[in-house]
Design goal:
The protein is an all-alpha fold. The protein is built from nine helices and no strands. It has a single domain, classed as Orthogonal Bundle (Catalytic domain of cyclic nucleotide phosphodiesterase 4b2b).
């Protein structure tokens, strides 16, 4: 049980198929690969890199832009697929990290290393906010396509609320590493996007 990887090739192919659905323009395999690349960059800081990798693979596995419980559903899928591959407490940690992507608030772990892993994981998920302006704009267009069913005034209001909530935080990112690398650009992108949404409405 301890020797086999948490996420083996068979599981990767099952999950990859979910991420390749035509309705996914941003929450797709490219997003997972970008996060896995960041996990590799920061591997030396992770207490349990395999658990973080599992959380990355599963965190958007269930994604329906009309649903309100994608994160809980994705966590439930992780619990089902990973049962028997690892111990229950580790599975709970993975599940808690996935659920935390709904709000990007840190889960309350007793363990400092688990908290650090969750901080880095959540920051990886939000790193797109601090991408170069053209990459950020492409991300925003892709998310808009995922919500094509939402009428424009509703979209503008909803998206503005999301951006405002991130910009209102003392820090968008939980870790010093990601703050240094992405925070200034994330604030610039968010402010610019918010102005565009408000101007157009």
């Amino acid at each position: 049980m301890e020797n086999e990887p948490l996420i083996d090739d068979a599981l990767k192919s099952v999950l990859s198929a979910l991420y390749r659905a035509e309705s996914r323009h941003y929450h797709n395999l490219a997003h997972i690969e970008a996060m896995l690349a960041l996990a590799s960059d920061y591997r030396g800081l992770l207490g349990d890199p395999e658990a973080v990798e599992a959380a990355i693979w599963f965190h958007d596995a269930i994604y329906d832009s009309k649903a309100k419980d994608n994160e809980a559903q994705s966590a439930a899928l992780a619990e089902k697929k990973l049962a028997g591959r690892t111990d229950p407490s580790r599975l709970d940690r993975i599940s808690a990290m996935i659920v935390a992507t709904a709000t990007h608030q840190l889960p309350l772990f007793d363990d400092a290393a688990a908290t650090r892993d969750a901080s880095l994981f959540l920051d990886m998920d939000l790193s797109i906010l601090g991408a170069a302006p053209d990459a950020f704009d492409a991300y925003e267009r892709a998310v808009r396509r995922e919500y094509a069913w939402v009428e424009e005034p509703m979209w503008r209001a909803g998206r503005s609320a999301v951006l405002k909530s991130f910009l209102a935080r003392p820090h968008i990112f939980h870790t010093e590493e990601f703050r240094q690398r992405f925070e200034p650009q994330a604030r610039e992108n968010g402010t610019r996007s918010l102005q565009a949404l408000q101007t157009a409405s």
